[in-house]
Amino acid sequence: MSFEKLGLSENTLGAVRRKGFSEPTDIQREVIPLFLKGNADIVGQSQTGTGKTASFALPLVDVINEYEREVQAIILTPTRELALQVADEIKSLRGKKRIRVLSVYGGQPIGPQIRTLRKGVHIVVGTPGRVLDHIRRGTLRLDGIQYFILDEADRMLDMGFIDDIRAIFRETPRNKRVLMFSATMPREVLRLAKRYMEKYELIRTSSDEPVPGLVEQEYIEVVPARKISVLKRILDGEFHGIIFCQTKRETRILAEKLAHMGYNAEALNGDMNQRSRERTLMRFKRRKINILVATDVAARGIDVQDIAHIVNYSLPQNAEMYIHRIGRTGRAGKKGKAITFIKPGEYRRLRYIESVAKVSIKKSKLQESIDREKRRDSRKRY
């Protein structure tokens, strides 16, 4: 089934195409039509990396009334990182609709959040503690809420947010829809559903495998100025794979640099027309080029067998994107390798992605060589 058959508006379908989504995942196929056509509450079980956020973000964009100033949807997440990620995903999918989205969380000055709320916001995405803080200050009113969404409900319960969730729920009107998403479905989650949902549809998806079991995952901490030299060490072996960059400009610059150094590399990004993309992919499939330098558009649509390597030239924005990227390798019973570059100071963010994606990302052996060189260079200076 294509996105066109799920009942989404043309505006939202346009955003889907710009994002490079090819076909809906299982959770998207189940949730989107039910969200748009039905009146029932929804409990969805789906692993991280299966497109869960888009499953509620896409229909939410369609049902929000952009001409009303009051908050129409509240989305609770267990962490500030996830709040930012969900808010960014909704913004990237809103197309031409003037939907205002605000993420609220602790550890950040509350003043700018208050000023934005006073201007009018349609969707608030936040952690329970900060949302409750705004409610008690009178800066966030939820009496116009039509959609109450709990993301990663199992983690919120594990982190002890149940009392905050109850307090927030009491501030919302009775006549609203409640959606709850969870990677696992323990009794506590179902008990929460029974307490706060009138009549709900339970959706479980299991066919979307989040992370191939045959992918060896490593990280390398490297300063930006040395990324190219470290990358060369990886490419000088037998390499047939994808290097993921954050921006279209970065793919072009890196592909040109690698080609100038004698590597068989080409860029793949959203600025290319469909015919050019298909030609590049065909050359990659036939091994006429062995290095594809791509944006995350490629993570959604590439289906090439025997990709042996994935390099995250920059740390992905979230766990879901990390899984989409490394899922290009380790297929059909064959081993693959995924190497992620992190800058100094990004270690905690890497570990957050690791915990949410439920994967193990080990320090690369190449890191030891880099560290030895650092110490040697330091001694030379002094």
Automatic annotation (TrEMBL):
Provide this UniProt record's keywords sorted from A to Z: ATP-binding, Helicase, Hydrolase, Nucleotide-binding
Q: Does the keyword Hydrolase apply?
A: yes
* Gene3D superfamilies reported in the protein's UniProt record: P-loop containing nucleotide triphosphate hydrolases (3.40.50.300)
Origin: domain of life: Archaea
- Record-annotated DEAD-box RNA helicase Q domain positions: 1-29
Which Pfam families does the record cross-reference, listed alphabetically?
A: DEAD, Helicase_C
Q: What is its EC number?
A: 3.6.4.13
- Ranges where the Helicase ATP-binding domain occurs: 33-203
Top EC class, one word? hydrolase
Q: Does the keyword Nucleotide-binding belong to this entry?
A: yes
Tell me the ranges covered by the Helicase C-terminal domain, including all copies: 230-374
Q: Where is this motif: Q motif?
A: 1-29
InterPro entries per UniProt: DEAD/DEAH_box_helicase_dom, DEAD/DEAH_RhlB, DEAD_box_RNA_helicases, Helicase_ATP-bd, Helicase_C-like, P-loop_NTPase, RNA-helicase_DEAD-box_CS, RNA_helicase_DEAD_Q_motif
One Gene Ontology term of the molecular function aspect: RNA helicase activity
Stated family: Belongs to the DEAD box helicase family.
Q: What is this protein called?
A: RNA helicase
Which source organism does the UniProt entry give? Thermococcus paralvinellae
